[in-house]
Amino acid sequence: MRKQIFKKQIQYLTILLILSFLIGFSNYIRIPLASASDSISFFIHFGIITSAIFGILYFLSINKFIFYLFFPPIAAISILSSCYLYLFNITITGAILEVTLNTDWQVTKEFLSIDIGVIILICIVIIAFTIHHRSRFNPLFRAKWALHLIISLILIFPAVYANSYRQNTIINRVPFTIINATKEYIKVKELYSIDRRDIALDAKVSKSDSLLVIVVIGEAVRNDHLGLNKYHRNTTPQLLKRDIISFSNNKSLYTYTAASIPQLLTRSDSQSPERAYSEKSIISVLNQCGFNTFWLANQTPDYTYDKIAKSAKYYSNASMTISTYSDIKWTDNKLLSLFKNIDLSSDVNQCVFLHSIGSHWYYNYRYPEKFKVFTPITKSRSIQHNSAIEKINSYDNSILYMDYFIDEIIHKIENKNSLLIYISDHGELLGENEMWLHASEHEKLHDAACFVWMSETYKEKNMDKYKSAIKNKNNETSTSLLFHSILGACDIETKILDQSQNIFSQH
Ligand SMILES: [Zn+2]
């Protein structure tokens, strides 16, 4: 009798192990790997994730009541999220959770309804099969519950350790992405409940002549890797053919997106950083002045600026189903398509914010094949398994694509009374002190590319601004310039406009 129960338990645990393996493996099916040693480090990562999933399912199985209550929903979420990754390369993100929970069915349907029936059926079959096997025994598990508890916690521990040791490396993978998505969703909700203070209630436009302003927010683009700024490689061939005014001494206040974007869009600066969360943004000021405002996203807004992005009169997100951990070609071509589809024929003043994915690691995913000009490029997603030159080549190719992307935008607006401001959220480390990527601390992480382009019509009407920008371009500027320079460029008069931060002003 005892032996039989033991056998059933082993059978059951084998099912759990296979299930955990399949869920965990969905994270790695598309990952680029360069070498055997590279594969080993990912194999360890995969092992830690599988062990944690197995540990959690094991833990839920110890007590019969806990099992019947919690196993079905947790298993369903895990199987669902890995199915989406396996079949469609879709990651469940905070944005998906938000539209689903807010029953924005139209949007939800667009990406979740693809064969949802099949996926739900797979879920039900697996869950029923597992429950059936768990229901075949009980006494032995109950007798040694403390031992089973210890085993399950030991299985989970490496993941908890690895996650705290290497910046959320586990929580960003399926099925734990759901924890991250939920956290993100809750934080957005919390921040929504805080009212930002109105600013510039006195603001009004002094000129009104169908102005079109485009603000492109770059991602991890460094001034010193632009051909425009005399980088030894010509990474900006298209922009060099245009009359671009580059602010090559521009510095970002922060070194990662979530902190940089609210700073960029508000009156926040090094003296009053809290304004990034206490005051309304430039978008609110533009709305108040009667502008048509657009926010086109190729990065799902972080909770820190979600509310600001959505305060635009028109909001669209091209990348709701992708995270930076997705193994998928994710270029700003998506943003270009969104941009080309919006109607800019209106006579009303307009301002379009484009939040690009720019040069975010993994760089090869940021540009189409024909922009693979600097070679050899990286072959592995693991930073340490590529040479320095491969990483820099991949990065520079992504800049080359940014050059094309901006040129295409200018092409669409050049016959209007228009202006484009490009500003990167922060810089990137490219091997300085053997360091890579961003979100740490180094001078190069603050090197944020910034440049301006004006149409001939705009130049004619605003020669003073054009001349001032040229005069100011070598000055030391910071990302705080954006708020005041948009006000300046749009001729918005308000007492909060700080002319010393306005790149279009003589002061
Ligand atoms: Zn960023």
The assigned structural class equals alpha/beta
Q: How can the largest sheet be summarized?
A: 7 strands, mixed
- What portion of residues belong to β-strands? 5-15%
Assembly type of the shown chains?
single chain
CATH homologous superfamily placement of the largest domain: Alkaline Phosphatase, subunit A
State the name of the first-level CATH class of the largest domain: Alpha Beta
- Summed over residues and divided by their number, the pLDDT gives a mean of 90
Outline, from the CA principal axes? elongated
Taking the alpha carbons of the first and last residues, their distance comes to 90 Å
Strand order, largest beta sheet = 3-11-8-2-7-5-6
Bound molecules: zinc ion
Radius of gyration, rounded? 26 Å
CATH topology of the largest domain: Alkaline Phosphatase, subunit A
Q: Examine the secondary-structure arrangement and name the CATH architecture of the largest domain.
A: 3-Layer(aba) Sandwich
Count of β-strands: 13
Query: How many domains?
Result: 2
> How much helix is in the residues?
40-55%
Which parts are unreliable, with pLDDT below 50 for 5 consecutive residues or more?
Answer: none
What is the count of helical runs? 19
